[in-house]
Amino acid sequence: MSYRLQVLIPPELDAQLQKAAQRSRVSKGEWVRRALRQSLREARKGRADSDPVARLASLEAPTADIGQMLSEIEAGRS
Length: 78
What we know:
The termini are far apart. The protein has a domain at 33-60. The longest helix has 23 residues, at 28-50. Helix content is 72%, strand content 0%. The protein is mostly helical.
């Protein structure tokens, strides 16, 4: 199901939107939907980047039990 969203924009912005939609060969509505999706994806990504735990998880680095990791660190020092 789709919902209608009415957003008031100034004439200058409407003209820019019209040109951008024409360049992309889509309707103004489709252009706005794509822009919203992209903006929401970037906002989610930005939030993950600011979360240190999410940033560490995104590294997909090897993990192990803390005791094992400390032993390996000590072994590497000698």
